[in-house]
Amino acid sequence: xRRKYALLLILLAGWSASCRKEQNExxxxxxxxxxxxxxxxxxxxxxxxxxxxxxxxxxxxVPGADRGQTTLSWKTKSTAYIEIHVDRPDGPLFxxxxxxxSCQTGNWVTGGQVFFLQNSxxxxxxxxxxxxxxxxVGIK
Length: 140
Hints:
Structural class: alpha+beta
Number of strands: 7
Number of helices: 2
Radius of gyration: 14 Å
Helix content: 10-25%
Number of domains: 1
């Protein structure tokens, strides 16, 4: 289990540096971030004015592997800055950004992986009380 987290931390460190986004870079396709029915159903405790989705979800599996890749997109009125953590609110940091944006994962997402959108302006951004939303990503 520790090897799995160590590998994940190494992968996340490389991807995190490339995932810093500015507010005006939300959704490069030019449209609004729309929550999927699945993400809304999974997140009944999502903060008001917050959308957090993974697309595609489920993530397609890389040929010959058991992991996939997805893009996480968010928009919130609850804070000016966010953090995204993997597996739990105080899990490995994946991405940081402004109140809206997106970050693409590498080919390391496993089925059932949960991403937590955290309020980085909170006194303790990795506390469960700072969670704005969460999304579970499947693989196919």
